[in-house]
What does this fold into?
Amino acid sequence: MARGRPKKDISGQDTKRGNGNGNGNGNGQLGFEAELFKTADKLRGNMEPSDYKHVALGLIFLKYISDAFEAKRTILLAEDPDAAEDRDEYAADNVFWVPKDARWTHLQANARLPSIGKLIDDAMLAIEADNESLKGVLPKDYARPALNKVMLGELIDLISGIAMGEASDRTKDVLGRVYEYFLGQFAGAEGKRGGEFYTPRSVVGLLVEMLEPYKGRVYDPCCGSGGMFVQSEKFVLEHGGRIGDIAIYGQESNYTTWRLAKMNLAVRGIDADIRWNNEGSFHRDELKDLRADFVLANPPFNVSDWGGDRLREDVRWKHGAPPMGNANYAWLQHILHHLAPNGSAGVVLANGSMSSGQSGEGEIRRAMVEADMVDRMVALPGQLFYSTQIPACLWFLSRNKNPGGGWRDRRGEVLFIDARKRGHMVDRTRREFSVEDIGRIARAYHAWRGERDAGGYSDTPGFCKAATLDEIRGHGHVLTPGRYVGSENEETDDVSFVEKYAALVQTLQNQFSDGRRLEEAVTAQLGKIDVP
It folds into this structure.
């Protein structure tokens, strides 16, 4: 497709390209979301994307629950008019009760009134009052003077056309896709801040295709806006399962992000137990007794102020206490702690986690490898994430590498996949995996695992290698795929410059942090000296 000089939307992406998935336009076709977002972006004016995000997503959510309510009400009126006023009838189908003045038709009819902001706030309050699971979730600041009420009315008109005339199931699907697409675009617009609540769809897709969460308990200890769960449910449905085949659990420490997750899952009709507290999963583990069949997580990289000094003897640190200056190995061990006996996990982490040796990280990694907890490692290309340009990797952990069920015994082996050359640029700053990229990476793993109909596995120079524990010991328990897969066309460098640079930067940051703590301690002691 000729690119020319297309106009940029607030995400910085080329609006001509749609959403990068290559499907056609039209209501219900992928590409409709991009056109809708482009129009919504024009209405934003000078409003910051971080503020506008809650305005737009809140209204999309309100449209969804109102449409779902009206669809159920129509069915009940035809069957038994008295049942149409019975709230239990709606709850039985996981449909939220929407009071009369909170319904979309009422807001749409009054969209041009100067009081539309207050009407929306009142609608949100009324819905929360009648639905316990939505308490404290919905945005309620539409009446603030700084919010342009003409823009609000135009946005309501725009959203009113989404999935109009579609069957109820189709409406849910289209509104869910629109909500998810808008989340991604706002994440792109906010850059690093956006990466705190949104994991790129293609990365989530790869995790899901590798783990195949068909049935069981799915957990994310830092769930952001809930994208891991949406993709897991989608995977189940696309492979002939039922939406109730998996039970979803999560925790999020950012209250605003937790609200986004609750709305995102509700728009998809997904029932989930998502907990919030501002202390986070390390210091207040809301689901301490949960043992999950699958964990999917994209924790914040290289967090230095995670409060590790208060958790030195924690039961979760089976393989060694994580360094106080970096939470990467705290996340890995927290996730391992929450895995069921046959559970598997996929975790996104910074590349430095594969090779770092400072502050005891190398010893923890060695202990995890020797305990046979590491199943496979995937090196990712740079520019996949909104929050960072540094390359990242995927850790896949397994409690039992010999589970039976037709799979081969993988004990004593780790699969290494180097995907640094995969993916394509969707704009000047960000890369995505294609369906073919995800398929090739996932097929290599499924073949290595010995799944039926997955084909035979063989090492592929430059791409994948099944290494024994002895080989990994020979590399000092460093888990960088480039050390193992080799390359046909270029001299193999054990650790790339980008990886070395990232590790050096992290070491420097840790040293700065240590220096600040030392300075504070010395200053405190000096303050205690009684100078005559």
Remarks:
- The chain has 17 helices and eleven strands.
- Residues 1-30 have pLDDT under 50 and may be disordered.
